[in-house]
Amino acid sequence: MLEQKDLEVLQSMMEAVLDGRLSETTKSIEETVDSRLVETTRNIGETVDSRLSETTKSIEETVDSRLAETTRNIEETVDSRLSETTKSIEETMDSRLVESENLILEEMERTRRILDNKIEQVQKNMEELNKYYRITKLESDNTALLLKMIEGLSKRVEDLERKTA
Protein backbone atom coordinates (compact mmCIF):
# COMPACT_ATOMS: atom_id res chain seq x y z
CA MET A 1 0.00 0.00 0.00
CA LEU A 2 0.91 3.55 -0.24
CA GLU A 3 2.42 5.47 2.44
CA GLN A 4 0.98 8.43 4.05
CA LYS A 5 3.41 10.71 2.32
CA ASP A 6 2.60 9.21 -0.99
CA LEU A 7 -1.01 9.63 -0.23
CA GLU A 8 -0.48 13.23 0.68
CA VAL A 9 1.54 13.82 -2.47
CA LEU A 10 -1.11 12.06 -4.43
CA GLN A 11 -3.74 14.08 -2.67
CA SER A 12 -1.87 17.28 -3.32
CA MET A 13 -1.44 16.33 -6.97
CA MET A 14 -5.11 15.51 -7.19
CA GLU A 15 -6.00 18.75 -5.52
CA ALA A 16 -3.69 20.58 -7.89
CA VAL A 17 -5.25 18.81 -10.86
CA LEU A 18 -8.73 19.32 -9.44
CA ASP A 19 -7.91 22.93 -8.62
CA GLY A 20 -6.62 23.42 -12.16
CA ARG A 21 -9.62 21.67 -13.65
CA LEU A 22 -11.97 23.46 -11.26
CA SER A 23 -10.30 26.72 -12.19
CA GLU A 24 -10.58 25.90 -15.89
CA THR A 25 -14.16 24.72 -15.49
CA THR A 26 -15.05 27.82 -13.46
CA LYS A 27 -13.31 29.98 -16.04
CA SER A 28 -15.08 28.12 -18.85
CA ILE A 29 -18.42 28.35 -17.03
CA GLU A 30 -17.84 32.06 -16.33
CA GLU A 31 -16.94 32.68 -19.97
CA THR A 32 -19.95 30.71 -21.12
CA VAL A 33 -22.19 32.48 -18.63
CA ASP A 34 -20.68 35.86 -19.59
CA SER A 35 -21.10 35.22 -23.33
CA ARG A 36 -24.63 33.88 -22.81
CA LEU A 37 -25.42 36.78 -20.51
CA VAL A 38 -24.13 39.23 -23.13
CA GLU A 39 -26.06 37.39 -25.84
CA THR A 40 -29.20 37.23 -23.67
CA THR A 41 -28.86 40.94 -22.82
CA ARG A 42 -28.43 41.74 -26.51
CA ASN A 43 -31.41 39.52 -27.42
CA ILE A 44 -33.53 41.08 -24.66
CA GLY A 45 -32.46 44.56 -25.85
CA GLU A 46 -33.34 43.70 -29.44
CA THR A 47 -36.63 42.11 -28.38
CA VAL A 48 -37.51 45.09 -26.17
CA ASP A 49 -36.52 47.49 -28.95
CA SER A 50 -38.54 45.50 -31.49
CA ARG A 51 -41.57 45.23 -29.23
CA LEU A 52 -41.26 48.87 -28.19
CA SER A 53 -41.08 49.85 -31.86
CA GLU A 54 -44.10 47.67 -32.66
CA THR A 55 -46.01 49.06 -29.66
CA THR A 56 -45.11 52.63 -30.61
CA LYS A 57 -46.19 51.98 -34.19
CA SER A 58 -49.44 50.37 -32.99
CA ILE A 59 -50.13 53.26 -30.60
CA GLU A 60 -49.39 55.80 -33.35
CA GLU A 61 -51.72 53.97 -35.74
CA THR A 62 -54.43 53.76 -33.08
CA VAL A 63 -54.02 57.44 -32.18
CA ASP A 64 -54.02 58.44 -35.86
CA SER A 65 -57.12 56.33 -36.51
CA ARG A 66 -58.97 57.66 -33.47
CA LEU A 67 -57.86 61.21 -34.19
CA ALA A 68 -59.11 60.92 -37.78
CA GLU A 69 -62.39 59.44 -36.55
CA THR A 70 -62.74 62.15 -33.90
CA THR A 71 -61.96 64.84 -36.45
CA ARG A 72 -64.54 63.38 -38.82
CA ASN A 73 -67.12 63.19 -36.02
CA ILE A 74 -66.39 66.78 -34.98
CA GLU A 75 -66.66 67.98 -38.59
CA GLU A 76 -69.96 66.13 -39.02
CA THR A 77 -71.27 67.54 -35.74
CA VAL A 78 -70.14 71.07 -36.62
CA ASP A 79 -71.63 70.76 -40.12
CA SER A 80 -74.88 69.44 -38.70
CA ARG A 81 -75.13 72.10 -36.02
CA LEU A 82 -74.10 74.82 -38.45
CA SER A 83 -76.78 73.66 -40.86
CA GLU A 84 -79.37 73.59 -38.06
CA THR A 85 -78.28 77.01 -36.83
CA THR A 86 -78.36 78.46 -40.34
CA LYS A 87 -81.82 77.00 -40.91
CA SER A 88 -83.01 78.35 -37.56
CA ILE A 89 -81.57 81.80 -38.29
CA GLU A 90 -83.17 81.81 -41.73
CA GLU A 91 -86.54 80.81 -40.28
CA THR A 92 -86.25 83.43 -37.55
CA MET A 93 -85.23 86.08 -40.08
CA ASP A 94 -88.07 85.07 -42.40
CA SER A 95 -90.64 85.26 -39.61
CA ARG A 96 -89.27 88.57 -38.38
CA LEU A 97 -89.19 89.96 -41.91
CA VAL A 98 -92.80 88.89 -42.40
CA GLU A 99 -93.69 90.55 -39.08
CA SER A 100 -91.80 93.69 -40.08
CA GLU A 101 -93.46 93.74 -43.51
CA ASN A 102 -96.87 93.34 -41.90
CA LEU A 103 -96.14 96.11 -39.40
CA ILE A 104 -94.91 98.38 -42.19
CA LEU A 105 -97.98 97.58 -44.31
CA GLU A 106 -100.28 98.20 -41.35
CA GLU A 107 -98.55 101.49 -40.62
CA MET A 108 -98.73 102.47 -44.29
CA GLU A 109 -102.45 101.65 -44.32
CA ARG A 110 -103.00 103.67 -41.13
CA THR A 111 -100.99 106.57 -42.61
CA ARG A 112 -102.98 106.29 -45.87
CA ARG A 113 -106.26 106.46 -43.96
CA ILE A 114 -105.04 109.49 -42.00
CA LEU A 115 -103.84 111.18 -45.20
CA ASP A 116 -107.10 110.28 -46.97
CA ASN A 117 -109.01 111.88 -44.12
CA LYS A 118 -106.82 114.97 -44.27
CA ILE A 119 -107.14 115.16 -48.08
CA GLU A 120 -110.90 114.81 -47.71
CA GLN A 121 -110.88 117.60 -45.10
CA VAL A 122 -108.75 119.78 -47.38
CA GLN A 123 -111.17 119.09 -50.26
CA LYS A 124 -114.10 120.09 -48.04
CA ASN A 125 -112.22 123.24 -47.04
CA MET A 126 -111.49 123.93 -50.72
CA GLU A 127 -115.16 123.51 -51.58
CA GLU A 128 -116.08 125.93 -48.79
CA LEU A 129 -113.42 128.36 -49.99
CA ASN A 130 -114.72 128.04 -53.55
CA LYS A 131 -118.26 128.74 -52.32
CA TYR A 132 -116.99 131.68 -50.29
CA TYR A 133 -115.00 132.90 -53.31
CA ARG A 134 -118.07 132.67 -55.57
CA ILE A 135 -120.21 134.46 -53.00
CA THR A 136 -117.53 137.11 -52.55
CA LYS A 137 -117.17 137.48 -56.31
CA LEU A 138 -120.88 137.76 -56.76
CA GLU A 139 -121.05 140.36 -53.99
CA SER A 140 -118.13 142.17 -55.57
CA ASP A 141 -119.83 142.06 -58.97
CA ASN A 142 -123.09 143.21 -57.39
CA THR A 143 -121.26 146.00 -55.58
CA ALA A 144 -119.56 147.02 -58.81
CA LEU A 145 -122.94 147.06 -60.61
CA LEU A 146 -124.49 149.02 -57.79
CA LEU A 147 -121.62 151.50 -57.91
CA LYS A 148 -122.07 151.87 -61.68
CA MET A 149 -125.76 152.32 -61.21
CA ILE A 150 -125.14 154.86 -58.47
CA GLU A 151 -122.67 156.70 -60.68
CA GLY A 152 -125.15 156.61 -63.52
CA LEU A 153 -127.82 157.90 -61.21
CA SER A 154 -125.45 160.52 -59.84
CA LYS A 155 -124.73 161.73 -63.37
CA ARG A 156 -128.39 161.81 -64.18
CA VAL A 157 -129.12 163.70 -60.98
CA GLU A 158 -126.33 166.14 -61.84
CA ASP A 159 -127.67 166.46 -65.35
CA LEU A 160 -131.17 167.02 -64.02
CA GLU A 161 -129.87 169.54 -61.52
CA ARG A 162 -128.08 171.42 -64.28
CA LYS A 163 -131.09 171.36 -66.42
CA THR A 164 -133.34 172.51 -63.63
CA ALA A 165 -130.98 175.03 -62.46
Short description:
The protein has 165 residues and is an all-alpha fold. It is built from 1 helix and no strands. The model has no long low-confidence stretch (mean pLDDT 92).
Give structural notes.
With 165 residues, the protein is mainly alpha-helical. The chain has one domain (7-124). The protein is 98% helix and 0% strand. The chain contains 1 helix and no strands. It has one helix spanning 4-164. The longest helix is centred in the middle third of the chain and has 161 residues, at 4-164. The protein is rod-shaped. The mean pLDDT is 92.
Which key phrases capture this entry?
165 residues; mainly alpha; rod-shaped; 1 helix
Into how many domains do the coordinates divide?
A: 1
Gross geometry:
rod-shaped
Instruction: List low-pLDDT spans.
Output: none
Radius of gyration: 68 Å
Query: Biggest β-sheet, characterized?
Result: none
List how many beta strands DSSP finds.
0
Derived from helix and strand composition plus strand pairing, the structural class reads mainly alpha
Strand content: under 5%
Distance between the termini: 227 Å
Order of helices and strands, N to C? H
Number of helices: 1
What percent of residues adopt helix (DSSP H or I)?
A: over 70%
Calculate the mean pLDDT score and round it: 92
